[in-house]
Amino acid sequence: MIRNYLKIAFRNLWKNKTYLFINLIGLSVAFGISTLLLLTAYGLLTFDQFHEEQGAVYRVYQKVIEPQGEQYGNNMPLPMRAALKAEYPEVKLAARILTGNAQLLKSDKLINEMIIFTDPEYFQVFGYKLLKGDPNTALKDLSNVVLREDIAKNIFGDQDPMGKTLTINHGNKEQSFLVTGILEKGPENTSIDNEILVRIENISDYSLNKDRWDNVQHALYLKLDEKTSLAAFENRLKPFTAKYYKGNIEQLKKEGAKPDARGEIISTRIMGLADSHFDTKVGGRGQAINKIYPYTLLIVGLVILLIAAINFINLSIAKSFTRAKEVGMRKALGAFKSQIVGQFWGEAFLICVAAFGVGIVLAYLFIPQYNAIFRTTLSLEMLKTPALVGIILLCFVLITLIAGGYPAWAVTRFNTVEVLKGKIKVSGSSGGIRNMLIIFQFTMSVLLIACTMIVWTQIKYLRSKPLGFNTTQVYSIPIGHEISGKRLLQHFRTRLANQPRILSMTGSDVNLGRGQDGSFSKSVLSFEQNGKGIKTNMRTADYEYVKTLDLKLIDGRDFSETFATDTAGAAVINETMAKQLGVKNPIGVTLNTEEKHKVIGVVRDFHFESLHREIEAVSFFMNGFPINYIFVKIAPDHVDETIGLLRKTYNEVAPKSEFLGSFLDENTNKQYQKEERISQIFFSAATLAIILSCLGLFAIAIMVISQRTKEIGVRKVLGASVMSIMTLLSFDFLKMVGVAILLASPSAWWLMSQWLSDFAYRTPIQWWVFALTALIAIAIAFLTVSFQAIRAALTNPTTSLRSE
């Protein structure tokens, strides 16, 4: 019996090759795309959970209630780690992490790598294993270095790196280290970098700041006693904060700050490491992501699967009418309903199994392209995770039951006598379910189209919004560690002084946007001015900073070689900083910083950070941090030749370093890579959803029009035109699309409003987005249905009436 069913199944599938291939292609693509989206979402939702397999890891952060609102900070002062371990026995392990750039010497070539300044307990806190070396002693001495396995392989090749000396340039100094450990390469979905590890005491300003509580620069992670709860520990931190931040708290009270619900103005708190990745307030907008992003990927994947399953249902039901006499004959000969269901569901199961296998193969084949387009690091190795395998198999079983079960059940409801007489029609309930499925398909399609358009308009806004500085003509060059920034800048000025296409140049410690070196840093300076607390971003700037970036000078002047005091005692501030000072004319005001800087210029506010954040106060000093970047303003003609000249000039002084120059517009655009990925995913999903939905709509049109053949013939005999018949047949389908538009539009508006709330600067959601989306959906549906409608309307009525 089973063999007979299989023969019939394969015969029917092969007989209806068009339907077979349509179903197979639709389900295969849906399974493949959904698998890739599931892997992406799983990687994001399990971000940093690798480190918590042997106990929870907490990140320390602070909440500060200022008169203007709440502020959060996740960088801590250097002495906090020792103080917490000394005063709280429940703190079992603690590690500070400060990330920087370093260069390693290999065959007379300097290689840029990330360096992590940390504490000896790093390995125990984050659960990393050493392939070579003892984790308890690997960072015992200040001259020890631990390398990740791939970095060690790149530097030393097949040689054993243990015990070898490695020269590292960092913080404008060259230092020799002894390799005492080789670290395993952890998973990709982690925020804890571990390329090169050295002791945090090696940072250049450690001795100056090791006892200062007003200088924050590193992240701090803890492991607590297993019996200690997060809430209990945070409550015990109240006296700790009051003790070490007494002056700050009193100053904020003077300024009018009110305690929060816990009675604190400054509170020291902890958050789970995995949770911090999804908290844009604490985790930081540059590193954290909104949790709606991975869930959106899951929903999109599920929607694509459901649309493909609905297509399968509709195509199966449409094709079942050609097999109605087979069903009627089986029932007349005594076949049980379960046998007929089993026959039809078995055929559906074979298609689903084949589609699932092809889908997995497609996912495997397209992973490299997917990773390149969406900047992910997916691998089918992730499918070895039992939980992930279980989820995929569960989805497969559910889709198989939905896609194969309903059509199988529907055909068993055919009336035997009516079927054998050649009279068959879909019941009212079946028609209602069919219509609901079509509405669902187009609701999801319209939703994805609207979301795609809104994301696209926001990205266009981010790229086109004036940032307040010149992005198209200014070229940014990372200094590297082979030479000091001051020396390289001076060499550039001397070497290129007479080049007409070099309009001006300057230097800074921080890039604008993210350059090819990928580095980003932020320094905040706090001080008291006339009894008022001042907080400002602190950046280094050299001569002609304002001129090179085309900043708008509201008052005063730029840094100038004419004034010798500018190098140590001058400051240029922005409008927001000037407002903080609260004086009518800030020019000449001496800032109460450690070096007593006098304000010489005020520039109009500009977006020195991404548009996720509102413009903050910023102050520029010439004697701040070392220069790490050179900004060169170049003429718009012969750009390639000018860049070649800059490259040649750089290589004259730093021949071992890689030239990583880029224009500032490239740097600022890189700040929105997450948004671009969302846009690409939505666009791809919307395109696929529309194609699959139209495929299903086409099948339904065939089925419905085939049932109205006699009606069409009668109408033509009575004088109906082709256009009127086409309009009649299309109207019912377009009504369903209209309902889908009404359901999808408010959902898209709400979802995108939530997504846009992550931006301090955003474009409003325009009405035309929904109008255009509606027109696109209606046009696509009309074109899909009208093909069959015109074909039916052009059929000879005598043929139609005779066939009935």
TrEMBL record:
Main localization category: membrane
Residue span(s) of domain ABC3 transporter permease C-terminal: 299-415, 684-796
The entry's keywords: Cell membrane, Membrane, Transmembrane, Transmembrane helix
Membrane spanning residue stretches: 20-45, 292-313, 344-367, 387-411, 432-456, 681-705, 717-745, 765-785
InterPro entries per the UniProt record, alphabetical: ABC3_permease_C, MacB_PCD, Macrolide_Exporter_MacB
GO molecular function: transmembrane transporter activity
Residue stretches making up the MacB-like periplasmic core domain: 21-238, 530-607
Keyword field contains Signal: no
Cell compartments where the protein resides: Cell membrane
GO cellular component: plasma membrane
Membrane topology qualifier: Multi-pass membrane protein
Matching PANTHER family: ABC-TYPE MACROLIDE FAMILY EXPORT SYSTEM PERMEASE COMPONENT 2, MEMBRANE COMPONENT OF TRANSPORTER-RELATED
Protein's UniProt name: ABC transporter permease
Organism encoding this protein: Runella aurantiaca
Lineage of the organism: Bacteria, Pseudomonadati, Bacteroidota, Cytophagia, Cytophagales
